Amino acid sequence: MISSKDELKNLAREAASAGAVGVDTEFVWSRTFYPTLGLVQVGFPDGHCVLIDAPQVEDWSPIGELLSDPETTKILHDAQQDLKILRRLCGGDPQGIFDTQLSCGFIGLSSTISLSDALKRLLRVRLDKTETQSDWVARPLTDAQLKYAEDDVRHSVDLMLEITDRAEALGRAEWIRDEMSFYDNPKLYREPDPETEMPRVRGSGALNKRQRDVLRALASWRESSARRRNLPRGFILSDEAIVALTKNTPSSPEAIHPVKGLNKNNLDRNREKIWKAISRGVEGDLPELPNTNQQGPSPDEGFEARVDLALACIKGTSLAAGIDPALVGNRSEITEFVLEAGLEDGNSQNRLRNGWRSNFCGGRLRELLHGKGSVLIDQETNMPKLSD
After folding, report:
1. Which of 4, 270, 338, 353 has minimal Cβ neighbours within 10 Å of its Cβ?
2. pTM metric for this prediction
3. ∠ CA(238), CA(197), CA(226), 5° rounding?
4. pLDDT tens digits along 112-124
């Protein structure tokens, strides 16, 4: 394993010369806010692998430069979480990413397929998954752990090439390249501002305006504290405690009493901070939430029926074409698409109106929603089909 800056520089140069490398991470995530990285694996086209001993690394900048090099393809499976971990450590905005999981959805497989299943289906390679629950921070690592870690990237380049060849044969290689540009957006890796989002708190139920503000203020303080101290949110303040303080708002710092998820010791340490957050909420001293209202006209009586029709058409068209319907869009996106059907093209960021999705089915579906074209059952596939 390597860890010095000079070794990481050599690795980055070797990766750039290869043009494409597999990348994976192994981490533990139990008593911290952020995952604790144990290993970074890099696999080369000839099958050899390099392991980075993450706890020993003092300067990640060479890996940051590799991560942000658009000329070197970084191949990951289910890339987003790994990229967020690496972005936070290395500082480089990811560019040149190929996600083997997502791209499988274009060639007749699931876009959520596991790496072991993808390798078995496409390359007839079987992985030994016995080390899935390993402690990747403890040292020394066993030979079994090292082999497991290397195998996760040893076949990455071959897997990408196989997926690309199959996509080329189907005329979808450009669609995959379009989809991979999703990972080039730096905003994807930025932590959201807890001040400007409505938190998800279990058990909060229906709240009035004042209670929502108290909930927001407490959750924002918890989120900021958890990030700063690198502790799980529940170690700072549990959802149950936030709900209790929200629905039975104390009138003074002294009126705050221990509740489930807020013991006496924690309360004594944080009483003034909790009270400050509650006071902010009561006073409404919070920034406005972003406007998330959907555009377009208000739903009418036929709206839900049009959404169901759109879902059926997308599912039928996708399955008949061997594309995972989940790639095209989820119910929320399709609902938004139907609601925005009357907007001009430049007024919507909905994915079904842009890129490969528009060419595949979004354009024709929009025409259908405007009364043009028709839907029929394809006699060969028995699937709903959009027809001009």
Report:
1. 4
2. 0.92
3. 40
4. 999 999 999 999 9
